Amino acid sequence: MFDLSELSQAVINGQKAKAEELTRKALEEGVSPVTIINEALVPGMAVVGEKFKNNEFYIPEVLVAARAMNAAMAIVKPLIVGDQLKPLGKVVIGTVRGDLHDIGKNLVMMMLEGAGFEIVDLGVDVAPEKFVEAAKANSADVVAMSALLTTTMPAMKDTIAALEENGLRDKVKVIIGGAPVTQSYADSIGADGYAPDAASAVDKVKELLAA
Amino acid sequence: MNPRKRFLSAIMGGRVDRPSVVCVNQTATYEQMNQLGAWWPEAHYKAASMARLAAGALNILGFDAVRVPFCQTVEAEALGVPIRDGGRESLPASSAHPFTPGEHIPVPNDILQRGRIPVVLDAIRILKTGLRNEAAIIGGVVGPFSVAGHLLGTDQLLMQSFLEPDSVKPAMEAALETAAVFAAAMVEAGAEVICIEEMAASTDLIRPSTFTDLVLPFLQNLIERIQVPTVLHICGNTDPIIDALIESGADALSIDCKANVSAALEKARGRTTVIGPIDTTQTLLYGTPEQVAASAEKLLSEGFSIIAPACAVPPGTPTANLRAMVDAASKAKSATTKPPTGPGKPSTTVEVFARYDIRVQKGEVSTSSGLEDPLLARVADSVIKGDARQTEEAVQQALRKYSPLDIINLALVPAIDKVGQLWDQEYYFLPQVILAADAMQAGVRICEQEMGESAQKRGKVVMHVAEGDVHSIGKNIVKALLVANGFEVIDLGIDVPVEKVVEAVKEHKPHLLTGSALMTTTMSAFPKIARRLEEEGIEIPFACGGGAVTQQFCETFNMGIYGGKANRAPAIAKAAAEGKNWRELREMFHR
Fold first, then answer.
1. Cβ pair B316:A151 closer than 8 A
2. Where would I find the H helices in B228-370?
3. Cα–Cα distance between B479 and B490 in angstroms, integer?
4. pLDDT at residue B338 tops 60
5. 3-state secondary structure of A92
6. Smallest Cβ distance to A150: which of B154, B204, B316?
7. With contact defined as beta carbons under 8 Å apart, do B463 and B496 qualify?
């Protein structure tokens, strides 16, 4: 049996080239793409998330690990046929209108992907209508929004209103985050959830979808 | 104790009459913008607007210092990073990251002329003149690590700072050079404190060892090269790096509420000042004045000698919340050598100025017009007080007894003369002058309406503010005086291109042309106008004034006459209307 823990470790250590090499090797030895994801990449990112929560890892380490994970994902994903890999859920994610900051959003996105969610990344400066369109087109379970500025936070409220206007509000869970965002702000605008960092975002999304 | 002195003393750990309240990051809010008539995005690009808006920190918020610029993109832009404007509500942001880790980034020789660096420097010069040392001027620079984030892209910066720290050093070096040169220029322009904002070095983003190994040496180098007191600002939880921050050499540390600020205060005692932070989003932006006061009181009771918002003031923050910080500090007991000053919470702009009426309370300076007749005195005192509405009412009352011309000559003109005296005595500052000028103009307008077109005009004057310059108060005061003295004024407004001035002179054939410029960069338009007029065969007295203009400068081009003080304008215009040419006017009015 191919030892997938080495691949997990390569992801945790952020060793992109090694992760790619080990992924290819695993495939050659007959390990299925789905197994590679579920038993190497996902657990690897879970460890990264834990270390981040414990202040063992800081953002650079997480970014680097996520980069390694993405590289491995890029190899196995195209090989997954049809319905073999059931994502835990579909998440539409973006930084709100007027805001160009994306590191936080990227981290959340990578952690969610690493946890087994399917991600539709809308990028930065995303207008409310765009969130709505994407949620509709992708039958999203979660709409995730990020903002770094107090000046752009109000766009979160606008997006929630747009979801309501389009009859989508009760079909999705809305989760928000970003440096100036707080639980009480999330409550005040009617968001379903708030998380203070990428690692806890994954927990929160799982919690929201389980409910 | 004057606000500037209080802050400069507090930052170096010295005696104060009460705790100092400042913001070392940006201070502009929508409320202030509307009150001051200076808005984003213009205030990011025009020095006059930037200065005006920044001065709100003193005049409206009651802080001890003002700070420019508002955004954190000036250095990056100067080094070639494309910037996207943030419109009326937000700040400019870098929209692309043109450099790669490891790449050498040249710092242009003319870096001080690049991007908006000249605008910030001019804004500081304007503040230096306009504030008359009432508040300290803080020049903000962005730290080398954060600028490197704009140059390389923050994700690249963060990853490489971990994987290959040497590869981000070229970007940090370019940023360091730029910051050092910029800071020196700011100091030369009049900045008394430099605040270094190093947000990207927060432990929210990088591990403590990266800060100590990679970022700290650059900060120490930068701080060593700055000749005035420095404040180092870093957000996030700074507990793991507090020792390193103290070792940076900064005279004060501005940290976040997320950190253990009391512990930091203790650790830093005797070595550097720690500024007590008030949460910006929950408390200042979304809280009530009472909540702000409670936060402030807690910090003050712990012994912080300076309190400030934890980070940049969110532009939607209500003025009342920011003033609550100042009120709390005013009430606090601290080691004093002078009795505390400052009454309660003023609610109108006019009352805000009463806060600074210290000398009046002690009977040193009188703001009374001193006129005997009660109707005229009421007109004049309303102007001096800067109350336009009251001036209009008073003029209407006075018109029952006096002719419009008498009201102008016996009340309005003496009132503005008194304002000029109060300015000279360094008792009135720019805001009071602005309000008084507006009030005088309001009064003059009513008188003009009364006089109708029947009043014979003594002469025609074309006025303008130099191309690229937006300052109009001086011109408006002169205009009011000229109108009051019976001249017809064609006001071309502000930022008037050279050609437009020439065309207006050709069209209106005035007796006198005036030009006003506050900045040395814009007064260069005047010799150009003179040359163009000569080319067109026109010879006309061209009286120039404004903060940047000197008699010597006026003598460097034909037709130039030094205007000097505003109250000389009617005499110069009169002489010009009588047919004196510019050489004769120089004889009469130059020293």
1. yes
2. 242-246, 261-268, 289-301, 319-331, 349-354, 358-361
3. 9
4. no
5. strand
6. B316
7. no
Angle between helices A16-28 and A5-12 (to 10 degrees): 160
Look at residue B200 and give its three-state secondary structure. Answer: helix
* Terminal Cα distance for chain B, rounded: 38
Does any CB of chain B come closer than 8 Å to the CB of residue A125?
no
Domain ranges in chain B with CATH number 3.40.50.280: 456-589
Residues 6+ apart with CB under 8 A from B229: B8, B11, B12, B192, B193, B194, B251, B252
pLDDT tens sequence across A191-209: 999 999 888 999 999 999 9
For residue B318 the two structure tokens come to 């209500």
**Residue A119: both structure tokens together:** 């991600």
What is the architecture, at CATH level 2, of domain B360-449? Orthogonal Bundle (1.10)
B307, β-bridge pairs = B21, B276
Domain A5-79 has CATH 1.10.1240.10: yes
Q: Are residues B210 and A60, on separate chains, in Cβ contact within 8 Å?
A: yes
Fold of B456-589: Rossmann fold (3.40.50)
Strand B542-545, strand A118-121: pairing = unpaired
Q: Answer whether B101's CB lies under 8 Å from B169's CB.
A: no
Is residue B251 within 8 A of residue B282, CB to CB? The reply is no
Residue A208 phi, psi dihedral angles, 5° rounding: -65, -35
Q: State both tokens at B191.
A: 């900045």
Amino acid letter, B456 = Q
Residue B178 backbone phi and psi in degrees, to 5: -60, -45
Residue in B286, B288, B311, B313 to test binding to A, most A beta-carbons within 10 Å: B286
Residue B348 has pLDDT above 80, yes or no: no
Q: How far is CA A191 from CA A145, A149, A177, in A?
A: 10, 18, 10
User: pLDDT tens digits for A29-69?
Assistant: 999 998 999 899 989 998 998 898 888 999 899 999 999 99
Sequence ranges of the domains in chain A: 5-79, 90-210
CB count within 10 Å of CB B37 equals: 10
SS3 track for B141-195: EECHHHHHHHHHCHHHHHHHHHHCHHHHHHHHHHHHHHHHHHHHHHHHHCCCEEE
Tens digits of residue pLDDT in B378-434: 999 999 988 888 999 999 999 999 988 889 888 988 898 888 788 777 777 777 777
**Mean pLDDT, residues B288-301:** 96
| CATH architecture for the domain at B3-95+111-330 | Alpha-Beta Barrel (3.20)
Cis peptide preceding B69, ω within 30 of 0: yes
Give yes or no for B86 touching A (CB within 8 A): yes
Tell which residue, B197, B212, B26, has the closest CA to residue B123. Answer: B26
| B316/A153 Cα distance (integer angstroms) | 11
Q: How many CA atoms lie within 13 A of A20 on its CB side?
A: 8
Fold held by A90-210: Rossmann fold (3.40.50)
Say if A64 is an interface residue toward chain B (CB within 8 Å).
yes
Backbone φ and ψ for B252, nearest 5 degrees, come out as -150, 150
Rg (CA), chain A: 17
According to DSSP H, which parts of B190-281 are helical? 208-210, 216-224, 242-246, 261-268
Of chain A, the end-to-end C-alpha distance in Å amounts to 37
| Tokens 């004024």 belong to residue | B489
SS3 label, residue B459: strand
* Structure-token match 């109250």, residue found: B567
What is the edge-to-edge ordering of all strands in the sheet holding B459-465? Answer: B487-491, B459-465, B512-516, B542-545, B560-562
Q: Does the beta-carbon distance from A149 to B204 stay under 8 Å?
A: no
Sign of CA dihedral B288, B294, B295, B296: positive
Phi then psi dihedrals of residue A82, to 5 deg: 50, -125
The SS3 call for residue B89 is coil
> How far B165 CA lies from chain A's nearest CA (Å)?
11
